[in-house]
ATPase (Streptomyces camelliae), 126 residues
Amino acid sequence: MADVEIVSFGYLHDAPPSAHLTIDLRHHFRDPHVAPELRYLTAMDAPVRAAVLSTPGINELVEATAAAVTAFASGPSAGVVTVADGCAGGRHRAPTFALALAERLTVAGHCVSVRHRDLAKAVVER
Protein backbone atom coordinates (compact mmCIF):
# COMPACT_ATOMS: atom_id res chain seq x y z
CA MET A 1 0.00 0.00 0.00
CA ALA A 2 1.01 3.63 -0.39
CA ASP A 3 1.56 6.77 1.59
CA VAL A 4 -1.25 9.17 0.70
CA GLU A 5 -1.48 12.88 1.45
CA ILE A 6 -4.91 14.51 1.22
CA VAL A 7 -5.15 18.30 1.18
CA SER A 8 -8.53 20.02 1.38
CA PHE A 9 -8.69 23.64 0.24
CA GLY A 10 -10.92 26.50 -0.86
CA TYR A 11 -10.62 27.90 -4.37
CA LEU A 12 -11.64 31.36 -3.09
CA HIS A 13 -8.54 31.56 -0.85
CA ASP A 14 -5.70 30.60 -3.18
CA ALA A 15 -4.72 28.38 -6.10
CA PRO A 16 -5.11 24.62 -5.71
CA PRO A 17 -2.10 22.87 -4.22
CA SER A 18 0.02 20.65 -6.44
CA ALA A 19 -1.36 17.10 -6.52
CA HIS A 20 -1.59 13.90 -8.55
CA LEU A 21 -5.39 14.15 -8.38
CA THR A 22 -7.40 17.33 -7.89
CA ILE A 23 -11.11 16.97 -7.15
CA ASP A 24 -13.34 20.03 -7.65
CA LEU A 25 -16.44 19.78 -5.47
CA ARG A 26 -17.84 23.25 -6.20
CA HIS A 27 -20.43 22.62 -8.90
CA HIS A 28 -21.89 19.17 -8.36
CA PHE A 29 -22.39 18.79 -4.63
CA ARG A 30 -24.63 20.48 -2.06
CA ASP A 31 -22.98 23.50 -0.42
CA PRO A 32 -23.70 23.82 3.32
CA HIS A 33 -22.71 27.50 3.08
CA VAL A 34 -26.14 28.32 1.65
CA ALA A 35 -27.86 27.09 4.82
CA PRO A 36 -27.63 29.85 7.47
CA GLU A 37 -27.51 27.31 10.30
CA LEU A 38 -24.46 25.59 8.74
CA ARG A 39 -22.62 28.58 7.22
CA TYR A 40 -20.38 29.30 10.22
CA LEU A 41 -19.80 25.66 11.13
CA THR A 42 -17.08 23.51 9.59
CA ALA A 43 -16.50 19.90 8.63
CA MET A 44 -15.50 19.32 12.24
CA ASP A 45 -19.21 19.68 13.09
CA ALA A 46 -21.48 16.67 12.64
CA PRO A 47 -24.35 18.58 10.95
CA VAL A 48 -21.99 19.74 8.18
CA ARG A 49 -20.61 16.26 7.61
CA ALA A 50 -24.13 14.83 7.51
CA ALA A 51 -25.27 17.44 4.97
CA VAL A 52 -22.29 16.84 2.68
CA LEU A 53 -22.28 13.05 2.94
CA SER A 54 -26.01 12.86 2.21
CA THR A 55 -25.51 14.62 -1.12
CA PRO A 56 -26.23 12.24 -4.02
CA GLY A 57 -23.03 11.08 -5.67
CA ILE A 58 -20.56 12.06 -2.96
CA ASN A 59 -20.01 8.54 -1.64
CA GLU A 60 -19.54 7.24 -5.18
CA LEU A 61 -16.92 9.95 -5.74
CA VAL A 62 -15.11 8.90 -2.55
CA GLU A 63 -15.01 5.31 -3.85
CA ALA A 64 -13.88 6.37 -7.34
CA THR A 65 -11.14 8.57 -5.89
CA ALA A 66 -9.98 5.74 -3.63
CA ALA A 67 -9.78 3.49 -6.69
CA ALA A 68 -7.73 6.13 -8.54
CA VAL A 69 -5.34 6.44 -5.58
CA THR A 70 -4.90 2.66 -5.56
CA ALA A 71 -4.14 2.78 -9.30
CA PHE A 72 -1.48 5.47 -8.75
CA ALA A 73 -0.03 3.45 -5.88
CA SER A 74 0.16 0.35 -8.10
CA GLY A 75 2.43 2.08 -10.60
CA PRO A 76 6.12 1.32 -10.88
CA SER A 77 7.27 4.53 -9.17
CA ALA A 78 7.29 4.70 -5.41
CA GLY A 79 6.31 7.82 -3.54
CA VAL A 80 3.53 9.67 -1.87
CA VAL A 81 0.24 9.97 -3.78
CA THR A 82 -1.22 13.43 -3.24
CA VAL A 83 -4.94 14.18 -3.56
CA ALA A 84 -6.21 17.76 -3.36
CA ASP A 85 -9.93 18.36 -3.04
CA GLY A 86 -11.48 21.79 -3.13
CA CYS A 87 -14.72 23.60 -2.65
CA ALA A 88 -15.45 27.32 -2.60
CA GLY A 89 -14.28 28.25 0.90
CA GLY A 90 -12.58 25.08 2.11
CA ARG A 91 -14.64 24.77 5.30
CA HIS A 92 -17.47 22.35 4.42
CA ARG A 93 -17.41 20.07 1.37
CA ALA A 94 -13.67 19.72 0.83
CA PRO A 95 -12.67 18.80 4.39
CA THR A 96 -15.66 16.48 4.74
CA PHE A 97 -14.68 14.72 1.51
CA ALA A 98 -11.04 14.57 2.66
CA LEU A 99 -12.01 12.90 5.93
CA ALA A 100 -14.29 10.38 4.20
CA LEU A 101 -11.58 9.57 1.65
CA ALA A 102 -8.96 9.21 4.39
CA GLU A 103 -11.18 6.77 6.26
CA ARG A 104 -11.80 4.72 3.11
CA LEU A 105 -8.09 4.62 2.21
CA THR A 106 -7.01 3.76 5.76
CA VAL A 107 -9.41 0.80 5.79
CA ALA A 108 -7.82 -0.30 2.48
CA GLY A 109 -4.40 -0.32 4.16
CA HIS A 110 -2.89 2.96 2.96
CA CYS A 111 -0.97 5.23 5.31
CA VAL A 112 -2.91 8.51 5.11
CA SER A 113 -2.29 12.06 6.27
CA VAL A 114 -4.86 14.85 5.95
CA ARG A 115 -4.25 18.60 5.92
CA HIS A 116 -7.06 21.16 5.77
CA ARG A 117 -5.37 24.21 4.23
CA ASP A 118 -8.27 26.66 4.61
CA LEU A 119 -10.55 25.16 7.26
CA ALA A 120 -9.61 27.73 9.92
CA LYS A 121 -9.92 30.74 7.61
CA ALA A 122 -12.84 33.13 7.89
CA VAL A 123 -16.08 32.38 6.09
CA VAL A 124 -16.08 33.92 2.62
CA GLU A 125 -19.19 36.08 2.46
CA ARG A 126 -20.83 35.68 -0.95
The two ends are 41 Å apart (CA to CA). The chain has one domain: 3-116.
